[in-house]
Write a structure and sequence with these properties.
Elements: H1 8-15, H2 17-20, H3 22-26, H4 29-32, H5 39-42, H6 54-67, H7 69-86, H8 88-107, E1 112-114, E2 117-119, H9 121-138, H10 141-162, H11 167-170
Antiparallel strand pairs: 1-2
Length: 176
């Protein structure tokens, strides 16, 4: 049976993935959140309204995703923190993995000897991998990630579609 060879660049060139994420790589975290809109503008209840049709939804989402992108990133971060706090086993597993890797890195590749117990660095890494891997599977990370995708999608797309454009922006796209 012959293997099917699919060139990866054919798929990625059409989606233009590299150029889309180039802005994220080139900007620092402080400059990413520098254009954050104030809370009073982000939660302006006077501008909330039901869109008339799907074209207006598209127009609002396009405008608001560009305008409030830093605010939406902060909403995603806050929902991620909430998801980790409400799943303490996953939080413990992540802390155990990071702490274990830090301790093993402090050993500098040397073997660990505690009294009569002797373990090589590969045994320590394997033990950490097995322990954290099993805890990771028990902690239901896939459910947490799917919840995070769904919750952030509903909140962000819901806000972007219900928040009307400002008056000066509403007429900028129309012909005079």
């Amino acid at each position: 049976m012959a293997r099917i060879q699919i060139p990866l660049d054919v798929l990625t060139s059409r989606l233009n993935i590299q150029d889309r994420f180039a802005g994220f790589r080139n900007t620092s975290l402080s400059s990413r959140f520098a254009n954050m809109r104030p809370v009073s503008e982000f939660l302006d209840f006077k501008r909330l309204s039901k869109p008339a049709n799907f074209g207006e939804v598209q127009s609002r989402v396009n405008y608001n995703l560009g305008t409030f992108s830093s605010n939406y990133a902060l909403v995603f971060v806050l929902l991620s923190i909430y998801a980790l706090i409400t799943n303490p086993l996953l939080l413990f597993d992540i802390i155990l993995l990071v702490g274990g890797l830090w301790v093993l890195g402090r050993l500098g590749g040397q073997d660990l000897t505690l009294g009569t117990f002797h373990a090589t660095s590969s045994q320590l890494y394997t033990g950490l991998l097995v322990t954290c891997g099993l805890l990771f599977l028990i902690a239901s990370p896939f459910t947490t990630v799917l919840w995070l995708i769904g919750a952030s999608g509903v909140v962000i797309i819901g806000h972007a579609s219900l928040m009307d454009k400002p008056i000066d922006e509403a007429f900028s796209g129309e012909a005079v």
